[in-house]
Amino acid sequence: MALLPTMSNRHRPNTSETGKPSLPPRPAVELQRRGELRVEKFLEAATEVFNEKGYQAARLSDIVKRAGGSMATLYRAFGDKTGLVHALMERSIDSFGQSLDELMQSPLPPDEALEQAAYRMVEEILTPARIACHRVVISEGMRLPELRDWFQAHGVEPMEALLNEYFQRETEAGRLYVEDPDRSAHLFYMMVIGGLILRSVNGRMSPDDVPHAKQQARLAVRLFLSGVLPRT
């Protein structure tokens, strides 16, 4: 029985449309139900250790010591340290994707809907788990290109694709005027969270800074909307 939820299809890139080869998924977890709590503790401990020591210096023995359990259980659940990072990424990607799922389903006008989505994006970006993921991707991207590309293909491109779809829909409905939805999706994404990613990775921002980050996100949404609201 798989303990860790796999990412829903809505957050997976459509390789037939992108033309990119699909990347290999993280090995499936094969533990019994009684091991679920232990797996959760492994993920919590891994988040702490990766944030404190970085990916290279983090040892699986440190994670096991902090979480309890055994090295054998950790290996059976995640395979290795890279598999553990994959599991953290999957969790964060699913959580982050919920903010854009809600945007797609929102009955609110674009200014309110985008502001709410931006707040949710900020909340997830500044979670300890997401910060750990970004630190690994940025610091180890050159050495672990498959991990870096997996995160980009599963954690970034599908989110921008949802924004692209939203901007197209709202433009067709006459509520927005977005000339290039694809590029605008990337710009909106980076305006809201690009700076937060850098500052959280280098330690200048933490989960305690969510209120301030939301103020910045609100301004980013307003600046973006000033360029895409319908002309009268």
Automatic annotation (TrEMBL):
<dbReference type="InterPro" id="IPR001647">
    <property type="entry name" value="HTH_TetR"/>
</dbReference>
<feature type="region of interest" description="Disordered">
    <location>
        <begin position="1"/>
        <end position="28"/>
    </location>
</feature>
<feature type="domain" description="HTH tetR-type">
    <location>
        <begin position="36"/>
        <end position="96"/>
    </location>
</feature>
<dbReference type="InterPro" id="IPR039536">
    <property type="entry name" value="TetR_C_Proteobacteria"/>
</dbReference>
<dbReference type="InterPro" id="IPR050109">
    <property type="entry name" value="HTH-type_TetR-like_transc_reg"/>
</dbReference>
<dbReference type="GO" id="GO:0000976">
    <property type="term" value="F:transcription cis-regulatory region binding"/>
</dbReference>
<dbReference type="GO" id="GO:0003700">
    <property type="term" value="F:DNA-binding transcription factor activity"/>
</dbReference>
<dbReference type="InterPro" id="IPR009057">
    <property type="entry name" value="Homeodomain-like_sf"/>
</dbReference>
<protein>
    <recommendedName>
        <fullName>HTH tetR-type domain-containing protein</fullName>
    </recommendedName>
</protein>
<keyword id="KW-0238">DNA-binding</keyword>
<dbReference type="Pfam" id="PF14246">
    <property type="entry name" value="TetR_C_7"/>
</dbReference>
<dbReference type="Pfam" id="PF00440">
    <property type="entry name" value="TetR_N"/>
</dbReference>
<dbReference type="InterPro" id="IPR036271">
    <property type="entry name" value="Tet_transcr_reg_TetR-rel_C_sf"/>
</dbReference>
<feature type="DNA-binding region" description="H-T-H motif">
    <location>
        <begin position="59"/>
        <end position="78"/>
    </location>
</feature>
